[in-house]
Specification:
Length: 291
């Protein structure tokens, strides 16, 4: 039996097997809990305009914002309403149900897989233009688990369809492509957008679109700095995709890695390589999707 990933759900807690399978209910439009336990300090919220990237058209900005969302996770032993917060991104997949995020968002430092995962794409303050989507499956590499969080901090999350049977990718207007082995250590630097929900507002509900970077991964997983002397999005921005070659008209680009932390001003994360591609290929299947 292959043993290169761990899969979580709310039903089967036996992690001695290579995979753990289960299913949650269909996606709903219920608001995610306002109680968050990680990734930033909640401050009093003030009305904030929707962020934008001046290099993109208004339509492209709208689409790009819709592909990035707040990920809420719950772990065994937490209060019922508690949530850990991070960021995830909709990707192009056969099923149309897949998002990418950080491994530590669904597998904690106690060695526990999350027992509930929810995704709110395009979240802005209290506005949820696409509702809240529940996950049915979340997967992290064994390399991440066994390295004590040092490497392969990456997760694939498979969402349920919504109450109308629609897939997340179709609802938000399409996901981003993924390029594996495009940002390995030693590869040529690539310009990428590093957008995420940092958590400085109530619930971390305002997307930070200021950070762009020249991405060149090193062996220590550090990859560069934000351009233009802006601060990297902190806290809940963990898990956001590094998106290269974003088209100015469509807002769609190519994901080359995942942002997971910062050391001082230097950014670090996970390049997408063999283990990540195996997990993605294994879990992107088009079961039930209509052409």
């Amino acid at each position: 039996m292959r043993n290169y990933f761990r899969v979580g759900d709310m039903h089967n807690k036996n992690r001695n097997t290579a995979t753990i399978f289960g299913r949650l209910g269909a996606a709903t439009t219920t608001a995610a809990s306002a109680l968050v336990l990680a990734c930033g300090t909640a401050l009093a919220d003030a009305e904030v305009d929707k962020p934008s990237d001046p290099a993109l058209t208004a339509e492209a900005n709208e689409h790009l914002r819709g592909t990035i969302g707040r990920l809420y996770t719950h772990f065994p032993g937490q209060d019922e309403g508690a949530r850990v917060i991070s960021t995830a991104t909709v990707v192009d997949s056969e099923s149309g149900d897949v998002i990418l995020g950080a491994g530590h968002a669904v597998y904690n430092d106690k060695g526990e897989l999350a027992d509930l995962v929810e995704f709110v794409p395009g979240l802005h303050e209290d506005e949820q233009p696409f509702g809240t989507w529940q996950a049915k499956k979340w997967v992290v590499p064994d390399a991440y688990v066994e390295s004590e969080r040092a490497t392969d901090d990456f997760a694939v999350v498979v969402l349920e369809t919504d109450e109308e049977g629609r897939h997340i990718e179709d609802v938000v207007g399409g996901g981003h492509q993924i390029c594996f082995d495009c940002a390995n250590p030693g590869a040529e630097p690539q310009h990428a957008k590093v957008y995420g929900y940092p958590g400085e507002h109530e619930g971390g509900q305002v997307l930070d679109m200021s950070c762009q970077a020249q991405v060149q991964f090193q062996e220590n997983r550090r990859f560069g700095y934000c351009d233009n002397d802006v601060d990297a999005p902190g806290g809940g921005a963990s898990g956001t995709a590094l998106i290269a070659d974003v088209d100015g008209e469509s807002g769609t680009g190519t994901i080359i890695g995942v942002y997971t932390c910062k050391v001082g001003d230097e950014l670090c994360g996970t390049p997408l390589t063999g283990p990540e591609q195996e997990i993605f290929d294994e879990n992107q299947g088009a079961v039930g999707r209509k052409s």
